């Protein structure tokens, strides 16, 4: 069967490329995939925007999430909403490789144009969920040393010299460590992290991002390194 590409219009005027095989036996599955994605799309857009602070870049992330969702074996997906959120978060992290990480993961990050994050409980919940998901991905994807270098650089804009002092590495090695961390996040290879460790890390990260408690966060990172 020859595949063809059609354009599916969404309520907000955006368009997404929908690959269809034209066969009746796959139409039902595709319709269900579209329905799930349309339902998740506002949340995915919010997640991507939290990281990128750009509507156009967030839309690109959502588009790429849709393309990957089409290629996913959905018969083995237990929680489509969670999977889509993870896809969007990982893609947004990959796009965002800059020191904006702290601003975009802060609970006070601005909402998309026309929205007031401070007055919208749903937006605040989405923001918190995006932060939780992002921190989990970082913890599951990186070693303690990679995690420390990546977060200190991307979330808190530490100079490489300061990261080197913290990790007892040369500046060039610190740069390589951050670069390696980015590749490992993009590779989507994850290990299970104990819930207690994740919750402790998340609390320390939020305290550092919101209240400026970098000393406490550094202590946690140092304990992980010594661990």
TrEMBL record:
A single BP term in Gene Ontology:
DNA-templated transcription initiation
Q: Name one GO molecular function term.
A: DNA binding
Q: Which Pfam families match?
A: Sigma70_r2, Sigma70_r4_2
Stretches assigned to the RNA polymerase sigma factor 70 region 4 type domain = 138-185
What are the RNA polymerase sigma-70 region domain coordinates in residue numbering? 41-101
Question: What keywords were assigned to this record?
Answer: Sigma factor, Transcription, Transcription regulation
The family line of this record is: Belongs to the sigma-70 factor family. ECF subfamily.
Q: What is this protein called?
A: RNA polymerase sigma factor (Sigma-70 family)
